[in-house]
């Protein structure tokens, strides 16, 4: 079954004949009828269905839903690492994830090694790590990891490979199929796709995912059933949304690359991107995020966000609406200036999340705004 069919197929409720998954808005279940569920923090039928759907889409054995993307990350990491574990990450990742590794886990006794952009495979080969954690497309400079090669290195060294695939989505890449042990998503982004829900997802082998699910129950990072319903509803259009978003983003990246007010464009689909050949190898589509540096100052870049009529200035991504943000003062504000410099996040960088609007309207909006600075 292909992805476009998987995301729309929920199954029929055997008791009522409902063709969509009901919202089981209850805290507990009557014994002995509800013995399977007992208490909704532990198991809820709506939330359980979402976990099954992400497992099916990622071609994994088991999926679990969480209250947020960071809930998925923290629950997974607290299950699989312990004081004395040695983990490898890369510096160019979501700021809050980076802080969780370097502030919490390192203080908890975990040995955290950090690779600079583009050097994760080289470092993974050099030492034996208990875990390697990567973003398949990094945030916000959009470096692409060769997961096929990295997974081989991890298997040879006995390292658990965890992949945050929020930017790629299961439509553009399936990390478990490419050799990862676990794939994570901030489902608030492209998977739900409408900027109206906070949720996280994880999928992988049953042995590890069963333990992670137990940790979710213990930590309380459980998803509300109504939020799960919204993610399920959003997933139904994931394939068609990503087809449009991939196309729009490629055209916008090409437009920005030629614009006189733009100094640099970061997009895996451009031949000038350092990982273009890797992206062609591991991705089916290049994704919906385009980062770019303008010619000007930080003040110019921040001011530019107020000049759009179609594109919204907001610290989010992955929705049907195009949004733009300033990583240095928004998503990556917790990184020090020195850390941002090493990653390549400049004061004039903007991160554009491309939506499903008419691409000509988006290009016109970008052109007018850029021409005003």
- Name the overall outline: globular
Based on the coordinates given, report the CATH architecture of the largest domain: 3-Layer(aba) Sandwich
Helix content: 25-40%
Strand content: 15-25%
Helix and strand element order = HHEHEHEHEHEHEEHHHEHEHEEHEH
What is the count of β-strands?
12
Q: Total domains, how many?
A: 2
What fold name stands as the CATH topology of the largest domain? Answer: Aspartate Aminotransferase, domain 2
Strand order of the largest sheet: 1-7-6-5-4-2-3
List the helices and strands and how they pair.
Blueprint: H1 3-6, H2 45-58, E1 62-66, H3 69-80, E2 86-90, H4 95-107, E3 111-115, H5 120-126, E4 131-135, H6 147-157, E5 160-164, H7 169-172, E6 182-186, E7 200-204, H8 206-219, H9 225-235, H10 238-257, E8 262-266, H11 276-282, E9 289-294, H12 298-304, E10 312-313, E11 323-325, H13 337-343, E12 349-353, H14 359-371
Parallel strand pairs: 2-3, 2-4, 4-5, 5-6, 10-11
Antiparallel strand pairs: 1-7, 6-7, 8-9, 9-12, 11-12
List the main descriptive attributes of the protein structure presented here.
373 residues; Aspartate Aminotransferase, domain 2; Aspartate Aminotransferase, domain 1; 7-stranded mixed beta sheet; 39% helix; globular
């Amino acid at each position: 079954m292909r992805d476009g069919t998987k995301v729309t197929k929920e199954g029929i409720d055997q008791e009522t004949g409902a063709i969509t998954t009901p919202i089981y808005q209850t805290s507990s279940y009557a014994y002995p009828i509800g013995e399977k569920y007992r208490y909704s923090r532990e198991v809820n039928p709506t939330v359980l269905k979402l976990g099954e759907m992400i497992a099916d889409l990622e071609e994994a054995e088991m999926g679990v839903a969480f209250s947020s993307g960071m809930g998925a990350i923290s629950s997974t990491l607290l299950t699989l690492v312990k004081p004395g574990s040695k983990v490898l990450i890369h510096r160019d990742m979501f700021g809050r994830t980076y802080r969780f590794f370097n502030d919490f886990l390192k203080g908890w006794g975990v040995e955290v090694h950090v690779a600079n952009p583009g050097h994760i495979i080289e470092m993974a080969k050099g030492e034996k790590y208990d875990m390697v954690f990567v973003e398949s497309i990094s945030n916000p400079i959009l470096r692409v990891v060769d997961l096929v090669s990295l997974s081989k290195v991890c298997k040879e060294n006995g390292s658990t490979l965890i992949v945050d695939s929020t930017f790629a989505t299961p439509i553009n890449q399936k990390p478990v199929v490419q050799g990862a042990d676990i794939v994570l998503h901030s489902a608030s982004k492209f998977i739900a796709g409408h900027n109206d829900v906070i949720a996280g997802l994880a999928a992988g082998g049953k042995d590890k995912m069963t333990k992670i699910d137990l940790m979710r129950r213990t930590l309380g990072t459980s998803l509300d059933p109504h939020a799960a319903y919204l993610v399920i509803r959003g997933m139904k259009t994931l394939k068609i949304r990503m087809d449009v978003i991939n196309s729009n983003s490629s055209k916008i990246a090409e437009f920005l690359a030629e614009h006189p007010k733009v100094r640099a464009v970061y997009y895996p689909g451009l031949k000038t991107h350092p990982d273009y050949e890797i992206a062609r190898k591991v991705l089916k589509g290049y994704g919906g995020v385009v980062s770019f540096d303008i010619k000007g100052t930080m003040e110019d870049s921040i001011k530019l966000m107020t000049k759009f009529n179609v594109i919204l200035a907001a610290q989010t991504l992955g929705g049907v609406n195009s949004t733009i943000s300033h990583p240095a003062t928004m998503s990556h504000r917790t990184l020090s200036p020195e850390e941002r410099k090493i990653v390549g996040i400049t004061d004039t960088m903007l991160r554009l999340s491309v939506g499903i609007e008419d691409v000509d309207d988006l290009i016109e909006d970008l052109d007018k705004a850029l021409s005003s600075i």
